[in-house]
Task: inverse folding
């Protein structure tokens, strides 16, 4: 069965010059769409990526990446809204690049995890720490 | 025909008062004459819920055995310093106070995870707070050090006293520079990436009685989920600014100093805030009842978002350098639509205050009045108006 999943991958400094994703693509035959990629000054790499392919192959890919030392996190478990802490102010909304945070007609703030690319701007912006990263 | 506050209170006591929120009034006014509405309606309720840094709490701890004199020493609550230049066991904890060892902006932008506002929220949540005092001994107060745990219930008085709350209108903050900036108006993305505003507009208390004709010293209000009072006009009070014909100022104008017993407030309406790159604050929920004493007041209370304008200010240069320049004016209906136009560019908007909570506060206050639990007050004295010439002055600088 084919599935589509978003991941946040963290690469330790020793792995950033290795063609890990391209090796995995050849071996497990999935499609990938890079949503965001950056390397910190400490030379840790972060890749936000959407993978689609056979679900068994995706599971194998996850396993292999972890074995190689990559931290693998699916996006749904990456950024969360703690509703009780949210005051529905909406200061996060214009910062969200994908519209995952929206103001509804009743002025409440709604978070749609499927649209989130885990950029983390809302975490910095939230005055009451309602947006949290589970990493 | 006008009404007196005493007459309105009689109707509240009998459970006959007609109370509407400012939003409900706006709807009613679409189909009714204001004269008729002014006769029918007794009270209009308002609300606001946003970070207000000039807030804090006076606390009295009672005496330890042997006695200790905080005054002249150093006092920490959960590591946050409190002002102790008062009598033996009184302190004032300010909302913006930071942990002594907080890295501040040394690692820019600082996170400011915990401070005075959070201690106030923790007290309200019933949590145990760590008190640590280091001071000098005297003949009557020999003890020099104490470290102990206590809760809000253990204190004698906990008096919320906020020298500046409830701003009558406020700036819309934008960033014209090429880098992201971190301000008390939130994170502002470069090159007009977003525009942040803070007033609740048509629900905001002082925009519904723009000349403070019914609000003054002693006015009873909703404060932090409990009952509070207007203590005085607030710091930086500035009634003489430019106003629209409907009386609403086109920039920050009047402010209020508020007071109330923290012990009867609720965590839901008083929250610590962390503003990345800026500091900590306290989010305060306030609701003020406007007695409909005549048609003029009714018309003020019915002013809509479309009729209230805020100035757009560049926080990368004009705000920090106090140039006084504004980039334009925008009304609250435009701000609440999610997009405004600044210098020909469509800019997404964000709000620092919660309109949803402001609405909840106005509704709660309405219920209190309808149930006869909350009576209105005649101010003990009124505050200076635009005719007084009272102004907010910049600092005198003869730097040495």
Result:
């Amino acid at each position: 069965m084919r599935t589509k999943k978003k991941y946040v991958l963290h690469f330790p400094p020793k792995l950033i010059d290795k063609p890990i994703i391209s090796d995995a693509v050849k071996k497990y035959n999935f499609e990938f769409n890079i949503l965001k990629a950056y390397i910190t000054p400490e030379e840790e790499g972060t890749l936000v990526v959407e993978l689609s392919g056979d679900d068994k192959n995706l599971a194998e890919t996850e396993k292999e990446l972890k074995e190689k030392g990559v931290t693998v996190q699916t996006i749904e478990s990456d950024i969360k809204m703690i509703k009780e802490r949210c005051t529905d102010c909406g200061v996060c909304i214009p910062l969200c690049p994908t519209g995952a945070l929206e103001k509804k007609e009743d002025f409440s703030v709604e978070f749609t995890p499927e649209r989130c690319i885990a950029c983390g701007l809302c975490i910095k912006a939230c005055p009451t720490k309602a947006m949290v990263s589970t990493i | 025909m006008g009404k007196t506050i005493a007459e309105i209170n009689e109707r509240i006591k009998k459970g006959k008062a007609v109370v509407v929120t400012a939003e409900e009034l706006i709807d009613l006014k679409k189909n009714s004459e204001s004269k008729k509405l002014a006769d029918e309606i007794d009270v209009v309720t308002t609300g606001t819920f946003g970070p207000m840094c000039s807030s804090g709490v006076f606390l009295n701890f009672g005496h330890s055995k042997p006695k200790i004199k905080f005054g002249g020493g150093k006092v920490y609550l959960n590591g946050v310093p409190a002002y102790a230049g008062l009598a033996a066991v009184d302190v004032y904890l300010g909302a913006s106070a930071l942990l002594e060892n907080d890295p501040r902006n040394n690692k820019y932008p600082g996170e400011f995870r915990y401070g005075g506002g959070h201690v106030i929220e923790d007290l309200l949540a019933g949590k145990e707070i760590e008190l640590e005092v280091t001071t000098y001994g005297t003949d009557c107060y020999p003890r020099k050090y104490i470290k102990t745990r206590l809760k809000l219930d253990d204190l004698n008085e906990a008096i919320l006293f906020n020298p500046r709350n409830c701003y009558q209108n406020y700036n819309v903050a934008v960033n014209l520079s090429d880098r992201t900036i971190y301000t008390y108006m939130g994170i502002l993305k470069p090159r007009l990436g977003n525009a942040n505003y803070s007033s609740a507009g048509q629900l905001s208390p002082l925009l519904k009685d723009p000349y403070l004709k019914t609000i003054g010293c002693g006015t009873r209000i909703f404060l932090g989920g409990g009952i509070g009072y207007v203590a005085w006009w607030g710091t930086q009070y500035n009634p003489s600014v430019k106003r629209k014909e409907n009386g609403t100022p086109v920039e920050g104008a009047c402010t209020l100093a508020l007071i109330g017993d923290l012990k009867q407030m609720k965590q839901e309406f008083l929250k610590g805030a962390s503003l990345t790159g800026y500091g900590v604050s306290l989010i305060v929920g306030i609701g003020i009842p406007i007695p409909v004493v005549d048609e003029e007041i009714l018309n003020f209370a019915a002013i809509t978002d479309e009729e209230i304008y805020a100035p757009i200010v560049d926080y990368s240069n004009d705000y920090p350098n106090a140039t006084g320049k504004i980039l334009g004016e925008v009304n609250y209906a435009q701000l609440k639509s999610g997009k405004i136009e600044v210098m020909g560019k469509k800019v997404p908007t964000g709000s620092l205050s919660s309109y949803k909570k402001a609405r909840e506060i106005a509704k709660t206050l309405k219920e209190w009045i309808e149930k006869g639990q909350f009576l209105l007050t005649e101010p003990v004295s009124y505050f200076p108006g635009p005719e007084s010439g009272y102004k907010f002055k910049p600092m005198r600088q003869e730097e040495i």
